[in-house]
Design a protein that fits this description.
188 residues, UDP N-Acetylglucosamine Acyltransferase, domain 1, seven-stranded mixed β-sheet, five-stranded parallel β-sheet, 30% strand
Amino acid sequence: MKEIDKMKAGLEYCYDDEEISLMKLNAIENANIFNSLPEDDLDKQHEVLEEILGSVGEKVWIAKRFCFDNGKNIFIGNNFTANFNLTILDIKEVYIGDNVMIGPNTLITTVGHPLTPKGRREHMAQGNEIRIGNDVWLGGNVTVLPGVTIGNNVVVGAGAVVTKDIPDNSLALGVPASVVRKLENDVE
């Protein structure tokens, strides 16, 4: 099995494989294209996002700099806002619902590395998808780790590190993020 096939299957793979490296270089080029667009040309920005992402809804705004590993594994719903310096390491799929806001300097990463020095020296990695529900607000400097599902109507406070699932209608804070209280859902 080729390394890129292992990666797509969610198995451990070598991240400096030639095919995977080419995929990442293509993603860097696509990010540079998006990041070079004029701030006021929202139509062109949306057009480019439609080309480089897996899917993108209506009323989507992403501030510069936007960085990603692949692009085609990112699926964004409607009415999405992301502030400056969003990084999505989309080795595996990242699904983002409708009415989501993401604060500046946020990292969403589907990829992790071995805890053993041997595995890290061999440049091994493994991906696991992330799901973010509807009506979510991730504050600034939030980190979302591989395999996490964030439910609907969730607020994750600034600086939090999300290491496990967060249920619907929750406020989560801290490192690691934990639910501190339930939130009212006034749109259901």
